[in-house]
Design a protein that fits this description.
Blueprint (H helix, E strand, L loop, with lengths): L6 E6 L6 H15 L9 E4 L2 H10 L4 H15 L16 H11 L12 E7 L4 E6 L18 H8 L9 E3 L2 E5 L1 H4 L3 H10 L8 E6 L3 E2 L18 H23 L3 E4 L2 E2 L10 H23 L5
Parallel strand pairs: 1-2, 1-7, 2-3, 7-9, 8-10
Antiparallel strand pairs: 3-4, 3-6, 5-6
């Protein structure tokens, strides 16, 4: 937490393996500043793969370790079932993801996490949004506060349960799926939390928002627009996630004006389980850090007003 009137927020998009970009960018920031990411922010929000990174950040885990996680563990997470009927089972078993989260993220109850943390998910039984929060005064929020006994690992697993890729996660008698369904870019909800719960004025808020890539070749004109032939099945989910991320970024920028820094590279269309572009994503993150290094330093500096 910083000691100025400025309230600093870190918002991290979902995107599966494309989270490599986010982890590498944050690792470069930690390397340059010589301090952990969480020391520079008063609130950290994450969705799906962004929830993994956010959970690691509040747990004081070096971002370089999370880069290594993406490099070494994603082939295991996204290892397909030996036998699967697509209409009746998820693409990947939850056990592999659960094992990796347990290996790298501590089993800390949300109530014992000091850094304000928001993790998004979707309650699919009642068609409601759901936000996990760490131990800060969220009782004034319109959304019910999280049980402080919920484990950080379970919150992350719920946020990562992308429809068709993973089965929903049961937490606290709720059936939860990926937060990407409504908040793939958690910028807007984080800004709203700062305004409503932390009672901050827009001019006192600064937000660094990191995306996982904006596809520049999602669709092209064609004759047939069936679910598979035109809309591309799973591609439609990626498209909706991208639109939500853009909408959230636009709203946050309108709310915060010059106090919103969005870093999100243009990429080809890579699905959230793509394993062939990890090195490319690392290179993009290193390139963008060099481009934005001065701006990032100024933007998240404790001395900034």
């Amino acid at each position: 937490m910083n000691n100025t009137d400025t309230f600093h927020i870190l918002a991290l998009d979902g995107g599966g393996t494309r989270g490599m970009y986010t982890a590498q960018l944050l690792a470069k920031i930690e390397e340059a500043l010589g301090t952990r990411i969480k020391t520079h922010f008063d609130l950290i929000a994450g969705t799906s793969t962004g929830a993994i990174i956010a959970g690691a950040a509040v747990s004081d885990i070096p971002m370089a370790n999370i880069v290594e996680l993406f490099e070494t563990e994603t082939p295991y997470i996204f290892r397909k079932r030996w036998y699967r009927i697509p209409l009746f089972s998820s693409k990947y078993p939850n056990t592999q993801l659960s094992q990796i989260i347990a290996k790298h993220i501590p089993a800390t109850p949300l109530g014992e996490i000091a850094t304000p943390l928001m993790i998004t998910s979707s309650e699919i039984t009642r068609s409601e949004v759901h936000i996990f929060r760490s131990n800060y005064g969220s009782h004034d929020s319109e959304i019910a506060p999280t049980s402080k006994e919920v484990c950080l690992r379970d919150a992350i697993l719920a946020s990562c349960a992308a429809p068709t890729f993973f089965a929903p996660k049961s937490v606290d008698n709720l059936l939860l799926a990926d937060g990407c369904l409504w908040a793939n870019n958690p910028s807007t909800i984080a800004a709203t939390e700062a305004l409503s719960v932390f009672k901050k004025e827009p001019r006192k808020i600064r937000m660094l928002s990191i995306g996982t890539g904006h596809s520049t070749n999602m669709y092209q004109q064609r004759r047939g627009w069936g679910f598979i032939t035109g809309w591309g099945g799973a591609k439609l989910t990626s498209y909706v996630m991208t639109l939500q991320a853009q909408a959230s970024a636009h709203i946050a920028k309108l709310l915060l004006k010059g106090n919103y820094l969005r870093i999100n590279p243009e990429i080809a269309r890579w699905e959230i389980d793509n394993l062939t572009q990890l090195d490319t994503l690392k290179s993009l993150a290193e390139r963008d850090f060099e481009r934005h290094a001065t701006e990032i330093r100024t933007f998240i500096s404790k001395a900034s007003q």
